[in-house]
């Protein structure tokens, strides 16, 4: 099956800093999503982005499908951004079946 | 504000007991997913349904787990008999084809 690798595994920031999270995948995808799991365990859908660039407030994401990677940018980080960020993909022949990466644990200190 | 709901939110049970988890997907969503999250394995897909029909349950231990959708507003995941290794957070998600929206999860502890 498709492999999803996220980097870095852990990231510690001071409030106000910017960061880039990366997701590499091993095969073509027809679906790629970024999720944030907050400290209470809730998984929140951030972006559906199989290709191209999207922005939502301080967050933006870019997927370069031909090179099999996606980036999540967090600008002016806040303590509420802390948690785990997951990239999840659906391989070309796997209808709806998301495969998750292991996540990036982000800690933002005040 | 439409949300996926799951019950119970927490469950503590003894080994050998039956556990039933319930999920109400967002109205209008035709795809429903069950995931399990553990520290060791991360997030794993157990089963998913489209238009109430099971499409894939290859991630589920067949001898003890079963998943059903008796109607469009209810999905169930059962474990019988439960074992300590089943302790995890179980998430239900629903969506149209492109995106998935997760419920709050059921935190299961099997003693």
Q: Could you explain the architecture of this structure?
A:
The complex is a heterodimer of chains A (110) and B (111). Chain A has 110 residues and is mainly beta. Chain A contains no helices and eleven strands. In chain A, strand 7 (59-64) and strand 8 form a beta hairpin. The relative contact order of chain A is 0.34. Helix content of chain B is 0%, strand content 56%. By secondary structure, chain B is an all-beta fold. In chain B, the strands form two sheets. In chain B, strands 2, 4, 5, 6, 9, 10 and 11 form a seven-stranded mixed β-sheet that branches. Chain B has a four-stranded antiparallel β-sheet with strand order 1-3-8-7, with no helix packed on it. Chain B has no helices and eleven strands. Chain B is globular. Chain B has strands at 5-7, 10-13, 19-24, 31-38, 42-50, 53-56, 65-71, 74-79, 88-95, 101-102, 106-110.
- Average pLDDT reading of chain A: 94
Number of DSSP-assigned strands of chain A: 11
Helix content of chain B: under 10%
The H-and-E topology of chain A, N to C, reads as EEEEEEEEEEE
Query: Low-confidence parts of chain A lasting 5 or more residues at pLDDT below 50?
Result: none
Largest interface: A-B, 19 and 23 residues
Please give the radius of gyration of chain B in angstroms.
13 Å
User: What is the helical fraction of chain A, as a range of percent?
Assistant: under 10%
Biggest β-sheet description of chain B: 7 strands, mixed
Total DSSP helices of chain A: 0
Q: How many H/I helical runs of chain B?
A: 0
Mean pLDDT of chain B: 93
From the spread of the alpha carbons, the general shape of chain A counts as: globular
Report how far the terminal alpha carbons of chain B are from each other: 36 Å
Tell me which oligomeric state these chains represent: heterodimer
Note poorly predicted spans of chain B.
none
**Rg calculated over all Cα atoms of chain A:** 13 Å
So what's the overall shape of chain B?
globular
Largest sheet composition of chain A: 6 strands, mixed
> Which H/E pattern describes the elements of chain B?
EEEEEEEEEEE
